[in-house]
């Protein structure tokens, strides 16, 4: 049986991978987070990966506090860059493959058509720069045995995220304002987890194709549109008003356009991508039953 180490296992994506893993009894999943393994410690990572006899590493760990990162670049770089290199080097030593999750923030958001994997990167924030550096480190260390999946606007029934925040505020307030000039595709962590395990399954059938891929749900919306739909599906009466980004100043620059072209992952790995509204409905139902 193949052994799969999942880092960041207590986060949104890690918990979603745990759910989907139940459908893959043919694999041994080893879940780890900061309480059991410091992925910033290269020696500890190599020892852990070797001891577990890893065949795959799914890296769900990341520093994702985008605004906080502007003042905490050192720690952000350790987690998003150095730790990724540590995982890559450990994988190389034992012949394991790495599936690593990255972000739309590697782009500056000035496109007007969906980003493809070969588009020039130009991160406009510390978070984006460190995530890109992590990609580059991994591709340098193990280019033939790593898959990088960039995603955007991640949410789930786990942890803290935009959907859960909107549902909470929708219960507390009569009105709130959300930016309408940032456009993208929300991504349900459950769908991303399913895509990751589909990549792994295809790899086991001899169809492993290393490189960079994009994944988000189908469809496009603004944060404002997203919030309106959350209120509707969540049964909230809170009114959502559209505002411009300049009316909601933030420390880190956000991409104004972060739609990702998913043709490559769909073609290469036969990944099925649901529409964002379908997945949002599924997530809200899961939140209601928690």
In short:
The protein has 290 residues and is α/β, with parallel strands linked by helices. The chain has one domain (2-160, 185-219, 257-274): Rossmann fold, CATH 3.40.50.720. The protein is 43% helix and 18% strand.
Secondary structure elements and pairings:
Layout: E1 2-7, H1 12-21, E2 27-32, H2 42-52, E3 56-59, H3 66-69, H4 73-94, E4 97-103, H5 126-141, E5 146-151, E6 154-155, H6 162-172, E7 175-179, E8 183-184, E9 187-188, H7 189-207, E10 211-214, E11 221-222, H8 223-234, E12 239-243, H9 263-269, H10 276-288
Parallel strand pairs: 1-2, 1-3, 3-4, 4-5, 5-10, 6-9, 7-12
Antiparallel strand pairs: 8-11
Helix pairs in contact: 1-7, 2-4, 4-5, 6-8, 8-10
Q: What is the radius of gyration?
A: 19 Å
Q: Please tell me the total number of domains.
A: 1
The residue fraction in helices comes out at: 40-55%
Strand content: 15-25%
- Described by the principal axes of the CA atoms, the overall outline is globular
Mean pLDDT over the residues: 97
Q: What is the highest CATH level, the class?
A: Alpha Beta
- Count of helical segments? 10
Give the biggest beta sheet.
6 strands, parallel
Spatial arrangement of strands, main beta sheet: 2-1-3-4-5-10
The CATH homologous superfamily: NAD(P)-binding Rossmann-like Domain
The CATH architecture assignment turns out to be 3-Layer(aba) Sandwich
CATH topology: Rossmann fold
Question: CA-to-CA gap between the ends?
Answer: 32 Å
- List low-pLDDT spans: none
Number of strands: 12
Q: What order do the SSEs take from the amino end to the carboxyl end, as H and E?
A: EHEHEHHEHEEHEEEHEEHEHH
Q: From the helix content, strand content and strand pairing, which structural class follows? A: alpha/beta
């Amino acid at each position: 049986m193949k052994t799969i180490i999942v880092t960041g296992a207590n986060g949104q994506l890690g918990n979603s991978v745990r759910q989907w893993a139940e459908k893959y009894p043919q694999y041994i999943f080893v879940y780890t987070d900061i309480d059991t393994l410091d992925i910033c410690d290269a020696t500890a990572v190599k020892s852990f990966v070797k001891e577990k006899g890893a065949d795959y590493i799914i890296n769900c760990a990341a520093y994702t506090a985008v605004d906080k990162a502007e003042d905490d670049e050192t720690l952000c770089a350790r987690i998003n860059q150095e730790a990724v290199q540590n995982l890559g080097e450990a994988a190389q030593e034992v012949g394991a493959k790495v599936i690593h999750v990255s972000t739309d923030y590697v782009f500056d958001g000035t496109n007007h058509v969906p980003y493809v994997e070969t588009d020039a990167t130009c991160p406009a924030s510390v978070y984006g720069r460190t995530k890109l550096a992590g990609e580059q480190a991994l591709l340098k260390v193990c280019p033939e045995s790593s898959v990088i999946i960039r995603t955007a606007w991640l949410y789930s029934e786990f942890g803290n995220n935009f959907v859960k925040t909107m549902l909470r505020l929708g219960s507390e307030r009569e009105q709130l304002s959300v930016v309408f000039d940032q456009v993208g595709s929300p991504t349900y962590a459950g769908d991303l987890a399913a895509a990751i395990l589909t990549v792994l399954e295809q790899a086991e059938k001899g169809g492993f194709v290393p490189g960079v891929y994009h994944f988000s749900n189908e469809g496009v919306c603004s944060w404002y549109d997203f919030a309106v739909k959350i209120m509707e599906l969540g049964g909230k009466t809170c009114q959502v008003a559209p505002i411009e980004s300049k009316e909601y100043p933030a420390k880190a620059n956000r991409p104004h356009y972060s739609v990702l072209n998913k043709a490559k992952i769909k073609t290469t790995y036969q990944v099925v991508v649901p529409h964002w509204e379908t997945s949002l409905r599924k997530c809200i139902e899961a939140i209601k039953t928690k």
